[in-house]
Amino acid sequence: MVLFSRRGASGFSACNTAEDVTLGIDGSGLTAIITGSSNGIGAETARVLAMRGVPIVMAVRNTAAGTFHSINEKVCGRIKSSGLPLNILINNAGVMALPYKLSPDKVELQFATNHLGHFLLTDLLLETMKKTASQSNIEGRIVNVSSEAHKYNSWGAYGQSKLANILHANELSRRLKEDGAAITVNSLHPGAIVTNLWRDSSIFGGKSSSMVSF
Questions:
Q1: One Pfam family this chain carries (predicted)?
Q2: So which residues are the catalytic ones?
Q3: Which of 125, 167, 168, 200 pairs with 39 at a CA distance of 20 to 30 A?
């Protein structure tokens, strides 16, 4: 319990609620969009902001319509055509640790949902937010709900770089085949071989000059 009651730089701890944090705040006159607001953190954020007088546009999950095109047409299009101001954008929608699956746009689902969708939404609504901030003289807020899992992992980064090698080879092979070029592109896994690949690794303090490569 001590861990959760420790106060951070904001003066609040993990034991504080959204109602605690917003106590005394009057949000009337502001408008907010919250993605992933049908449950969890998004729903509680929407509930408390509404309690403080903020009109909420709840962008909820729709798997069938969850394409980049639908973000443009169905979310941003409606917001812009409504003429509503936009002071607050909370990019909250997310999925975590799913089995491998592609989004309707053929992008790995976690990356598509957690980053690309929010990147696009923010970009498309940015001019509306700038206009609102300028006309209202109230500073806008964009909040990306992230995670401690963002921290750099050397093995994860290594794996991603090698995945990029394979994807590059696969796509280049496909394009060369389409062009009728007599060139083969392969991805090679060398297996366990004694090399100096680990010379810069922090795992062994960069002292090992003859380790296994894979």
A1: adh_short
A2: 152
A3: 125
**Predicted confidence (pLDDT) at residue 110 exceeds the cutoff of 90:** yes
Whether the CB-CB separation of 192 and 213 falls below 8 Å is answered with yes
Res 61 pLDDT > 60: yes
Distances (CA, A) of 63 to 7, 73, 99, 102, 156: 38, 15, 16, 12, 28
More confident residue, 212 or 153: 153
CA torsion, ordered 28, 36, 151, 108, to nearest 10 deg: -150
Q: Give domain limits for the chain.
A: 28-188
Which of these, 52, 65, 60, lies nearest to 34 by C-alpha position? 60
Task: Label residue 209 exposed, middle or buried (CB < 10 Å: 0-12, 13-18, 19+).
Answer: exposed
